[in-house]
Amino acid sequence: MLTLLQRPAPPSDVLPLFSPEAEGRLERFLPPFQFTSFFSPEDTLLCVLAAERALQALSNTETHRPGGRQPGGTASRSAPAAPLRIVELTAGSGLVGLRLLDLDPGARLLGVDVDPAAPPVAERNARALGVAERARFTQLSVLDPECETLLAGAPIDVLICNPPYIPEPPGMPLAVEAGSGADGAAHLRRVAELAGRLRPRTVALSWCSVGDPVGVTEAMERAGYRLDALYAVAIADGEYSGMVQPYLETLSTAFLDRAPATRHAMAADGAARFAYVLLAGVWVVGDEVREASDAGSAAAAVDGLMRGFAREGLEALREPAMPCEYRAWLLDRWDEIVLRAMLHGPASGRSAAGDDARDASPVARQPTEPT
To answer: Which residues form the signal peptide (predicted)?
Structure first.
């Protein structure tokens, strides 16, 4: 169907388009792979990129945990190689963790999600991909104290989380962003706390420019982690973020851009009300705790990036000064259609667990809204 349609206007040349990152990378996750009703492909794909980098960061370290792998992925002669332990919080369909099982055939995955529909969907996906014996999924909230008890059972090599992170206005709780809190960062602060206590070797984390991005970065640095890579995607507002736009504009911790040039770049038909930025970072255990006031800290760099975006729009995302690897893309409305068509295929291939864009919640979303 897409071949019969033409892009209504050339894409902006400020940033590369995001959908090509899915090519080849997500071939195994096409229908009949199933998604939960809260699935959003753009932030999931961004988290996949971060998780892949986290796995690479492990291979670049001198050793894995005792009895584990050595440089270059070879096993220690003194003991059998211990399989990598991957934990995916707010796992949903399990796509990100299952992608890492594809890349490391010896790894083991534990997926956790508060949605009771998520574990059965993820388990079916693991069976379909032939990795069910290496994957386990359970229903549990990341905010529940029992979550820490569950995770503390063994060392964690890669911790993944792509949680709800759009702020919830006081008195306006919605299932689609349940528990994200007034600034959108409640789950993310919890993950930083867990990381500080459980000490996973690497963390792949998703957050966004309207959900206290600087505070999230500070929390990870206080937990003793160093930002190894940062990925950014400029995206237009969706139904929920557009609905809460007046509230977002009251938050000093939310960064968005309403400039006409940016809105036109996001949607040539003028449908975009504003743009914001999806972020995914790779965190590795640092040598020292960095303070936000440190000019070389990741928090200071993210603060500069976000303030630049709010002032200058997409141009500020091109070549910022960052203390780590950095890449940025554009996901305009048309590229969003391309990305969703790649993953969802025909309507007959959609999940029986819910619609293809998190629209089973009490308030439906447009395709551009991440959790």
So the answer is: none
Specify the pairing of strand 85-89 against strand 108-113. Answer: parallel
Indicate the SS3 state at residue 125. Answer: helix
Query: Within the chain, what is the greatest distance between any pair of CA atoms?
Result: 63
Rounded to an integer, what distance in angstroms lies between the CA atom of residue 269 and that of residue 266? 9
Q: In 3D, which of 31, 91, 2 has the Cα closest to residue 344? A: 31
**With b meaning 16 or more CB within 10 Å and e meaning fewer, what string describes 105-133?**
eebbbbbbbbbebbbebbbbbbeebebee
Question: Minimal CA–CA distance to 115: which of 97, 92, 88?
Answer: 92
Whole-angstrom distance, CA of residue 183 vs CA of residue 133:
39
Q: How does pLDDT run across 17-63, given as a tens digit for each residue?
A: 999 999 888 888 988 899 987 788 899 999 999 999 999 999 876 44
Tokens standing for 111?
Answer: 């997926």
Query: Tokens 């934990």 sit at which residue?
Result: 87
Rounded to the nearest 10 degrees, how much is the dihedral formed by the CA atoms of 97, 100, 105, 107?
-60
What lies within 8 Å, CB to CB, of 176 at 6+ separation is 38, 164, 240, 358, 361, 362, 363, 365, 369, 371
* pLDDT tens profile 320-346: 999 999 999 999 999 998 888 888 765
Residues 6+ apart with CB under 8 A from 100: 51, 52, 55, 86, 107, 109, 158, 160
Beta bridge partners of 330: 17, 234
- In this structure, are strands 325-331 and 225-236 parallel, antiparallel, or unpaired? parallel
If one counts every other C-beta atom within 10 angstroms of the C-beta of residue 219, the result is: 22
Domain covering 15-349, topology: Rossmann fold (3.40.50)
Beta strands in 61-104 (DSSP E): 85-89
Pure H helices in the chain = 41-60, 95-103, 118-128, 145-151, 186-198, 213-222, 239-243, 245-248, 260-266, 298-312, 333-344
Domain ranges for the chain, please list them: 15-349
A 10 A CB-CB count for 364 gives 15
SS3 223: coil
